[in-house]
Amino acid sequence: HGLPIEHQVLKELGDKKKTLDTPAIRKLCREYAERFYTIQREEFQRLGILGDWQHPYLTMNPGYEATIIREFGKFVERGGVYKGLKPVLWCTADQTALAEAEVEYEDHTSPSIYVKFPLVTSPTVLSKTFPGISFPADIKLVSVVIWTTTPWTLPANQAVCLHGDIDYVFVQVGDEVLIVAEKLLESVTKACKLEGARVFGVKKGRDGFEGLETQRPLTTGLSPILLGDFVTLDQGTGCVHIAPGHGMEDYILVLEHNAKASPGERLEILAPVDNAGRFTDVVKEFAGQHVLKANPKIVEFLQANGRLLGHGSLNHSYPHCWRCKNPVIFRATEQWFVSMETNDLRKEALAEIERVRWIPAYGRDRINGMIQNRPDWCLSRQRVWGVPIPAFTCIGCRSVLADPTVIEHLATLMESKGADVWFEQSAAGLLPEGTTCSKCGGTAFEKERDILDVWFESGVSYAAVLKPRKWWPADLYLEGSDQHRGWFHSALLAGVVTDRRAPYKAVLTHGFVLDGQGKKMSKSAGNVVAPQDVIKQSGAEILRLWVSAQDYRDDLRISPEILTHLIEAYRKIRNTCRFLLSNLYDFDPEKDRIPYEQLPELDRWALHRLSELLPRVRKSYDDFEFHTIFHALNNFCSVDLSAVYLDILKDRLYTFRADSPLRRGSQTVLFEIVVAMTKLMAPVLSFTAEEIWRILATQQGRRLGVSSVHLSAFPEVPPQWQDAALAERWERLLKYRSQVQGVLEERRREKVIGSSLEAHVHLTMDAKTGMWIVNACRDLETLFIVSEVTQEHCSGAMTDFAISVTKSTYAKCERCWNYRKTVGQDASHPTLCDRCVEAVQ
Questions:
Q1: pLDDT digit string (tens) for 279-310?
Q2: C or N: which end of the chain has fewer Cβ atoms within 10 Å?
Q3: Are residues 716 and 799 in the same domain?
């Protein structure tokens, strides 16, 4: 459901839409939605998103539509739903009311005008009204000056508002007196190019102004001066033009005035604008003109009639419809609302916000501010593609019938026939037999024409989707940061009304996608990176990796360069897993696994590093810190595995006898690592993880417990893997290794050696360090990946050790490529070392 689909259908129909009735248009909207939901489903599946794709929940399904009606019935039953004339955000292009969640603020240039509202009271009488102020004898006109950026609202003017505590000055300019706020006089004088302005008096707003009447600048009639606390000194004149049909503060002020006024003094809630944003015949001079396009002509009219004091333009943030992108207006119309104050809805919603986990934490403050300041929820929309508001109006007395019993009857009807039944049957056919008006006893009714806000539909998804499956409340709602005013917002209010709690335990929001320079993407700028193109060129896995590698709390950047970097990182992870798998082709964990206690220290060090990785990644998932998962896995593959463990291990894997305990021990660790890594990466690199899992299962016919990695549990850490003493020891050994590698690289550049296996490393150190190294590692050749290591201990203390590298004098074993003294000692294998001879026999 929703306006975008209806708008697109009407656009495709063109003039033909005038020949179709509402059921026909709804049928086309349904067909359009079905076509694109199928495309969307395929795109989600291509991205590797898990879901019950054969049974999606759609707001246009009869069952969902019935739930929407029932939840509305709960709103009615609890109280707070009302129909009334009130200014609401109105899109003149789509001709419908909008909620706060359906507008976005963009830069907009508006006229900035200063208009005179002449007081009808003569200067002589005003001297008595304002004791101590003497008006010059030659004064012909005394005017209150207002400032506005919406000249089109002046035909609806009903009053002028001042603040009781603000000081207002009386300023003589020629034969006129202007009244403005004292603190804004300088800016008004400059904007209106006033010359010879002279202040001759000052009074507070509460001292005599209230009740004075002014002449309206565009229409006949008088506008009284009222007092209001919302008047500020930020800009303007300190005097506010009041059009209650086009502004919420104006509307509230006039309601308060009317509540105390006699019938003859009450002001009208006037909005002389039609659905398309054109002036009605009430405004004869501008009838039929679009209000925003009429602004220049209104300014000309004011100028011609001597009411315009100053004129300019202002670039400011202005509400636009987030669907059609056109500027919106405030317009008083009859709409359905949910009161934020009845039953303490606002108070309860604010309390629920505190009970929800907000990720990032600033989301709490953002939605809190929105709930604190939002107006009553406007539920009605003047469209056809949606769920109708299940209410009727008595033809006899015009009272509204919105009864929970009737609403349940309608929900049952829609459960079997869908919401289309509302538009296909008469009111009599929809109402339960014998329904009468509670006010006049009438039996003739007409149906409500409006549909429910689609944010109400999505807001009650917990009732349609989660409750039947007993998944309520949701563990997490996840969407973009704009949904603090959208889905998160409507779901919170709906949940509080129907269940007295939020429908979610946690809410996660992410930023918007920008280009590599942090700029908004647009076709005109040529910086759009389309997801479909990324998938086509690099695969869905890269797109998934990009999402997980970003810190979603900020806006996310994407560019070919960023993707290239991620592709390289992905290849490192993939190639690491490929290496692990290629060395497990003959390993059966049920037969070949070596107990932990029998593993060499190097293998136990690798398991210790894995034991540190597992809880860190698990915590990152629990904390929704997805970008740290990518960096942790990438670092583990690049540093712990490729640069250290696997680098050292190659000799053992490639040259030892196939069933050697040392080789089987290494395979035991490789198997643990690849299984754990596959499970850790599965939520992100879903396709790669599944591919690895299937290879693991087919090698040696291994039994992995479940057919898919996505059905497996996260790996647990055996307590014995965590060995702090071993980790500390190996941290020191690897520091020595790094120093040796640095010298080896220098000798490589000097052409002393080719590969590190050609090297003879000689270490000079003090006796204490030497004994520690001997006890810590009895196979320094393997650790350094060289053919020979010798040590020399000096008598004195040394802060470090000296490293000397020369080329080995021994022959090269053609099988393991080590340079060893034993090469050629076995006559039957003259080119092999003793270790390789043992391996091949």
A1: 999 999 999 999 999 999 999 999 999 999 99
A2: C
A3: no
H helices present in 271-403, as ranges = 291-304, 345-355, 362-373
CATH number, domain of 638, equals: 1.10.730.20
Tell me, yes or no, whether 101 lies in a domain. no
Q: Which of 731, 744, 751, 750 is nearest to 787 (CA)?
A: 744
* Residue-wise pLDDT tens digits, 504-547: 999 999 999 998 888 888 877 888 888 888 999 999 999 999 99
DSSP-assigned states of every residue in 43-91: HHHHTT----TTS---TTSHHHHHHHHHHHHHHHHHS-EEEEEEEEEEE
Question: Which segments of 167-305 does DSSP mark as H helices, in order?
Answer: 185-191, 248-260, 291-304
| Positions of E strands within 744-812 | 759-766, 788-794, 802-807, 811-812
**Strand 167-173, strand 213-215: pairing:** unpaired
Distance, CA of 422 to CA of 430 (rounded, Å)? 7
565 and 424 in a common domain: no
- Among 286, 321, 356, the domain boundary falls at 321
Shared-domain flag, residues 283 and 141: yes
Q: Summarize the chain as % helix, strand, coil (round to 5).
A: 45, 20, 35
Residue in this structure with the two tokens 């296996």, named with its chain if needed: 757
Buried b (16+ CB within 10 A) or exposed e, 25-62: bbebbbebbeeeeeeeeeeeeebbeeeeeeeeeebbeb
Main-chain phi, psi angles of 118, to 5 degrees: -65, 135
The answer to whether residue 125 is domain-embedded is yes
Do 207 and 288 reside in the same domain of the chain?
A: yes
Domain stop point among 279, 294, 321? 321
CA dist., res. 711 & res. 702, Å (int): 16
Identify whether residues 352 and 421 lie together within a single domain: yes
Instruction: Flag whether 753 is in a domain.
Output: yes
DSSP state of 463: I
CB-based contact 169:199 (threshold 8 Å): yes
Interatomic CA distance for residues 48 and 240, integer angstroms: 57
Per-residue pLDDT, 777: 83
**Strand ranges (E), 679-794:** 759-766, 788-794
Q: What is the 3-state secondary structure (H, E, C) of 379-404?
A: CEECCCCCCECCCEEECCCCCEECCH
Same-domain status, 421 and 450:
yes
Could you tell me which residues come within 8 angstroms of residue 259 by beta carbon, excluding any fewer than 6 positions away? none
CB-facing half-sphere around the CA of 792: CA atoms within 13 A: 8
**Token reading at 283:** 């405004």
Q: Are 598 and 669 in contact (CB under 8 A)?
A: no
3-class SS of residue 93: coil
Q: Do 243 and 183 fall within a single domain? A: yes
Number of domains in the chain: 5
Q: Are residues 70 and 116 in the same domain?
A: no
In this prediction, residue 507 carries a pLDDT of 97
Q: Identify whether the C-beta of residue 630 lies closer than 8 Å to the C-beta of residue 549.
A: yes
Identify the pLDDT of residue 524. Answer: 76
What is the domain range of residue 745? 734-809
- 219 located within any domain: yes
Tens of pLDDT along 386-417? 999 999 999 999 999 999 999 999 999 999 99
